[in-house]
Amino acid sequence: MYPEYMMESINKVERTRPQRLELARKHGKMIYPRMSEEERETVLNNYHPDYKKESRREVRVGPNKGEILTTEVADIFESYGRVNKEMFNFDKVDYETDVLIIGAGSAGMAAALIASEKGSDVLIATKLRLGDANSMMAQGGIQAATQKDDSPATHYLDVIGGGHFDNKPELAKALVNDAPESIKWLEELGVMFDKDEDGSMTVKSGGGTSRNRMHSTRDYTGAGICRVLRDEVFNRPEKIKYLEYSPVVELLLNEKQEVSGAIIYHLDNKQYSIIKAKSVIMATGGFGRLHIRGFETTNHYGATADGLVLTYRVGAKMMFMDSVQYHPTGAVFPEQIVGFLCTEKIRALGAQPVNCDGELFVYPLEPRDVEASAFIRESQGRDLGVKTPAGLVGIWLDTPLIEDILGEGTIEKMLPAMLRQYERFGIDVRKYPMLVYPTLHYQNGGIEINDKCETNVPGLFVAGEASGGIHGRNRLMGNSQLDIIVFGKRAGLQASNRSNDIQKVGKVHMDHIEKYNAEVAKLHLPKSKIAPMILPDYIPDHVKAKQLVSEYSGTLI
Amino acid sequence: MSEKTKMVKVYIMGEAFMVPAASTIIMAIEYAGFQLKRGIGCREGFCGACATVYREKGDYKLKGGLGCQTVVSDEMYIAQIPFVPAEKPLYDLNELTPDPSTFMKLFPSIYRCVACNTCTKSCPQDIQVMDYIQALIRGDIKQAAELSFDCIRCGLCALRCPAEIVQYNAGTLARRLYGKYLSPKSPELEDRLQEVNDGIYDQEIDEMMTMDIKDLTKKYFAREIKIT
Ligand SMILES: Cc1cc2nc3c(=O)[nH]c(=O)nc-3n(C[C@H](O)[C@H](O)[C@H](O)COP(=O)(O)OP(=O)(O)OC[C@H]3O[C@@H](n4cnc5c(N)ncnc54)[C@H](O)[C@@H]3O)c2cc1C
Ligand code: SF4
Ligand code: SF4
């Protein structure tokens, strides 16, 4: 429940609610003027975390050397590897496979299914369990132009407009063209899409869509898809092997400098093993757990950008790694759920953002970056946010309005996961507003790919959130769940084709790591600065100070 | 704010630690200095990795819950269940029929259900677990699929079931059979697939791919918006 001083602010919200309800009844969503182009620019420049000077810096090593990247990403690129070649005998390989897939979210598992169907032996190495991934957490939906009044061409225009026309055209084309087929593929695997009585797909709109195109499986869309893929992976033990609790810590090259394997580290028995493969697919997802600019995140525990580091060290180029997606509405109270996603649907259903005095200050459905900046301006710039007992600050999202507008029972029907989430901590969002603040949500850029999921390094394919180019610098809701299926499948096919053409991988090595480390050493960084991070560390300082590994960040042992 | 954090004593695998009273079980374990590697996943209640059993002070009941969604209390005893040993039958969905014979073959154990309702009581997602097992026994795959929908595969039901049924695996199969065979087919999807295969949108897309950015921007802002 809310402490008394917060209740005082809630009373103010309740006092202004009747007027705001009146506004909504008269003007629908237009309860506050939309920002003009100039207003948008001003609020972004002054308040969006990406636009702050410290948020970006030049990276001094590797393939993107000299370019401006998100500071925390540049930091992990300027790190040493955790293993060196003296530790290994590369004549003794522990696992050999046709296709190695790194990461078992939906992108990795879709790739595994397709590669196995094309006759390849597949090995998946993943950090925690299969499906412990951002893929499992999506609530809102997956886009595809399946409806009569829609078309892949219309979808294409929405995708590139949303991405401010920076998207790689061939990738956007692949995304929209493969979308209907991907929905069909998922349904044939047994995904239970929401449907109308006659069997047509229930579709809704989302930020930046010009048609109703958002398919869903209740508000568990990510799980609805990911758990089916996982069950299917379980069903094919002959063709698909998997190693859990086995994060990859370095990629290996062969004598032709093709990516040809990896080194994994077992989180429990601390053993390192060598995998040799004909092709490698990187499907390690995003970077939320880097807590960029100190933000809380919606991402799963293992979202630490490992794939970016590993591929960067073998020479893969990054694209758009200077932009971060903050979701405007992350929970800030109660403290047990800080950072958790409060889906965009809440505002779409009529909940209004208001300040500590219960006053409106922004149109509720501006683009994500603009909306998030307006929240930061209201709470930091104008000091009109609400402070929590833990010292955080937030904006009210007036959820009781939803039922005033759409009728009693709407929240239980449309937002069951959200209702359950808050009920667990004693807050009934049908009666009281929720306190929210922008939260770190999505890695817009990533490893550059082409429409075959190839990178500039032979043997290395990438799919999913780890890749860059599909969405430009701004991904629209529902297009990520789509891209992991479209490009997961493409990567599986291409990696399998490649491995079918290869007779012999040859000897593997990690000389590239030695070179990379030498480059990092020129920056005179302390030896304790290592990457990939593997898992974030939430141990409090007073305990950490007494541990042997106190100077390291992330997982050492 | 600066008011002193209230602390409580919890027993993690029997060992006492002082942790902030507002912690979830996961936060408490981390506060005690453990870096979690098992029994943890999404940290938001969607992946089912952090099944935990606990006993609260003065309560004889052994309760189950998700570590990331359960707040600690003073004198709480905590043990994580990072893995539940359970059989998962292998199948090729294409060769199955969506009827009771499939469950008789692959999940014969469900017919041993004694309707004790323990599973329902132990489910952190408030799913009517017994009801979906009973639905399968009756051969109602649709109802089982719908009732089991919010399952996150935490394993707590199977752990407590006296009949040793692995409910969540049966639920998974019910949903997959329903999605593939029983849910009515979308009429417009097949037409769209045909159109895409015939390449009828390619020209329009190809034009946009090479269009001057100014024209493209104009086209974008002038596009017709048809949403409800
Ligand atoms: C809370 C939330 C809600 C979302 N809602 C939506 C939505 O409604 N619609 C939408 O389109 N998108 C949504 N997204 C975004 C979308 O779900 C993700 O971008 C997408 O699922 C990423 O899939 P992926 O397979 O690329 O990565 P992930 O699903 O994150 O999988 C990556 C896998 O790689 C593993 N891994 C990481 N490092 C290593 C390593 N070193 N070695 C081995 N394995 C490793 C991870 O453990 C994980 O299993 C949401 C995201 C979040 C977090
Ligand atoms: S049905 Fe069983 S496995 Fe699924 S969420 Fe409930 S207790 Fe966990
Ligand atoms: S716990 Fe087992 S026996 Fe009891 S109702 Fe559930 S499925 Fe049936």
What does this structure look like?
- The complex is a heterodimer of chains A (557) and B (228).
- Chain A is α/β, with parallel strands linked by helices and 557 residues long.
- Chain A folds into 2 domains: 4-31 and 324-440, Succinate dehydrogenase/fumarate reductase flavoprotein, catalytic domain (Flavocytochrome C3, Chain A, domain 1), CATH 3.90.700.10; 85-323 and 444-508, FAD/NAD(P)-binding domain (3-Layer(bba) Sandwich).
- Chain A has 16 helices and 20 strands.
- Chain A has helices spanning 4-27, 37-47, 71-77, 106-117, 152-162, 169-188, 221-234, 306-313, 345-348, 368-381, 400-406, 410-414, 416-423, 479-501, 511-521, 541-544, and strands at 56-58, 68-70, 95-102, 122-125, 142-143, 214-215, 240-243, 248-254, 259-265, 272-282, 318-319, 324-331, 352-354, 386-387, 393-398, 434-443, 446-448, 460-462, 467-468, 508-509.
- The radius of gyration of chain A is 24 Å and the shape is globular.
- By secondary structure, chain B is of the alpha+beta class.
- Chain B folds into 3 domains: 7-80, Roll (Ubiquitin-like (UB roll)), CATH 3.10.20; 93-182, no CATH class; 197-221, no CATH class.
- Chain B has a 5-stranded mixed sheet, covered by helices on one side.
- In chain B, β1 (7-12) and β2 form a beta hairpin.
- In chain B, α4 runs antiparallel to α5 and α4 (129-138) packs across α7 (167-182).
- The two termini of chain B are 44 Å apart.
- The mean pLDDT of chain B is 95.
- The chains are: A alpha/beta (557), B alpha+beta (228).
- At the A-B interface, α5, α6, α7 and α13 of A face α1, α7, α8, α9 and α10 of B.
- The structure holds flavin-adenine dinucleotide (FAD) and iron/sulfur cluster (SF4) (2 copies).
- One iron/sulfur cluster binds at residues 122-123, 125, 127, 129, 151-157, 167-168 of chain B.
